[in-house]
Amino acid sequence: MFRQIEPLILPPRKIDETKRELSGETHMENEAAEILKLMKDNGCDILDLKFTDLPGAWQHFSVPIGQIDDALISKGVGFDGSSIRGFQSIDESDMLIVPDPQTAKVDPFFNSTVTCIADIRDPISNESYSRDPRNIAKKAEEYLKSTGIGDTSFWGPEVEFFIFDSVQFDYGSNFGFHKVDSDEGIWNSGEPYMLDGETINKGYRPRHKEGYFPASPTDTGQDLRSEMVRSLVNDFGLTIEAQHHEVATGGQAEIDMKYDTLLTTADSVMMYKYAVRNVAKRHGKVVTFMPKPLFNDNGTGMHTHQSIWKDGVPLFAGDGYAGLSDMALNYIGGLIKHGKSLMALAAPTTNSYKRLTPGFEAPTILALSARNRSAACRIPMYFDDPKAKRVEFRSADPTCNPYLTFSAMLMAGLDGIENGYDPGEPLQQDLFELSAEETAAFPQVPSSLEEALSALEEDHAYLLKGGVFTEDVIENWISFKRENDVDPVRLRPHPYEFYLTFDA
Asked: Distance between CA 405 and CA 266 in Å, rounded?
């Protein structure tokens, strides 16, 4: 016998609360309350809102605790989008910045401040802004799910950087120069004193290309890198796997973070760069993520490990080459097919292509290889565990916008899976040792930013699937980079040109 269920009669107040739950208002109230609790528990009265411009740098502004309420969390704060690189024109400049409460952290570098990553929204349509890099990353994750291929992509970037003691650069109509310096720089071996002008030169310095894993006293950055790790772990909640000196002289370093989902990892890269720079600042040092700040030594890359999972199962493990599945091989085929256009996002500066030259461990050949760091697509072979099976794309560098770069790589890989692209025969030899004639037989990364932008102009249909990228975003990126990177460098005399041609 069925029991009749009595209708639920709610009091008026409960009815209002239920309506708010259905509309999302209660969620917003809870999130506002959580941010306020975080601030009050830690004695903070300033909320700093950070968002990413199109090139990939954090921008920010702050609001006092008295301004934080449900409306700020749900509707955001207005700002001038025309003053942000790659955003709006001045005739449509009004935009909204909306905090993501889940990213709120106590900022270790400023007094009584909570920092929070934010999204950008159009005030007229109330929709997520199509040029907001974080929005593009969210759409890429949704597109993956919509394909049915997988439901999660994992990303593990290896972000390298240099720690310098001083940096100088300037340019005018009649001069141009740059100079970086480091107590660790091999070029200071002949000086009587260290850079402080008082300490006798001790002589311990990594030679060019010999900075990988030296112990103290040659490695002088151990304590500083460890402090960076503590900030990343304790202040920003990142999982860090290791830190070490990198190959180049002059203080090159690497701190490795554990893989995570696309959006989370892109957020983590932004936190990483922020923390590393500001810890260095505390100690009178300066960090740069420039791909090639030093001539005749290894540059700085961002090798990016990636894989696709579904229902908690890794999909890149199989019985094919290097223990890969057909899906993984097709994914790599997509990376290789679209490799030239990808570089416009993954290596987005003119300086990027000074790193991408033979002889400095920066892969220029778009090929697949197991264990081989000279190929653009490397398959790590440390462990047999299917969960560890992934592809490492080695040609990217940390001047990229991680939201755009990870999204573009995912879209290229998915296009490869959808179309069954063959990655070609694996290359087992040391590709750095090939002659120019031998190298020419294989697909190459572009030799310049201009070439990469032209490739993106011709090959970007794969980025438009699912509305992840838009034509507007692609066109805006290309025009911005040409106007602000390519042309300014192209039009200026280079100091070395004087050495080569002054007396011609």
From this structure: 9
Asked if residues 144 and 306 have their Cβ atoms less than 8 Å apart, the reply is: no
> What CATH number is attached to the domain comprising 213?
3.30.590.10
Q: Residue 353 is part of which domain span? A: 152-501
- For the four alpha carbons of 422, 424, 428 and 434, in that order, the dihedral sign comes to negative
List residues bridging with 304 in a β-sheet. Answer: 157, 393
Categorize the per-residue pLDDT at 359 as very low, low, confident or very high, splitting at 50, 70 and 90.
confident
Nearest to 154 by CA among 466, 391, 417: 391
Distance, in Å, from the CA atom of 302 to the CA atom of 400, rounded to the nearest integer, reads 9
Q: Is 377 helix (H, G, I), strand (E, B) or coil?
A: strand
Q: What is the mean pLDDT of residues 8-19?
A: 36
Written as one letter, the residue type at 478 is: I
Q: Say if residue 125 is in the same domain as residue 177.
A: no
Q: How many C-beta neighbours within 10 Å does residue 442 have?
A: 18
Q: Are residues 63 and 171 in the same domain?
A: no
User: Which among 361, 377, 301, 346 is positioned nearest to 455, based on CA atoms?
Assistant: 346
Evaluate whether 376 touches 444 at the Cβ level (below 8 Å): no
pLDDT tens track for 41-65: 999 999 999 999 999 999 999 999 9
The region that residue 56 occupies, defined by phi over 0 for left and psi between -120 and 50 for alpha, beta otherwise, is left
Are 114 and 176 in the same domain? no
233-276 pLDDT per residue, tens = 999 999 999 999 999 999 999 999 999 999 999 999 999 999 99
Please tell me whether residues 375 and 244 are part of one structural domain: yes
State the residue for tokens 């997509």: 334
Could you write out the DSSP letters of every residue in 81-109?
GGGSTTS--GGG-EEEEEE-GGG-EE-TT
Contact 332, 172 (CB under 8 A): no
Q: Is 14 within the bounds of a domain?
A: no
Q: How is residue 440 written in tokens?
A: 């020419």
Which backbone phi and psi does 479 adopt, to 5 degrees? Answer: -65, -40
Helix, strand, coil shares, percent, the chain, to 5: 40, 20, 40
Round to whole Å and give the CA distance between 269 and 240: 12
Contacts of 461 (CB under 8 A, 6+ apart): none
- What is the separation of C-alpha 360 from the centre of its chain, rounded to a whole number of angstroms? 21
Contacts of 36 (CB under 8 A, 6+ apart): 65, 68
What's the confidence (pLDDT) of residue 300? 97
Per-residue DSSP letter, 129: P
**Which amino acids are annotated catalytic?**
80, 158, 160, 246, 254, 303, 373, 392, 394
Helices (H), 24-132: 25-41, 70-75
The reported pTM is: 0.92
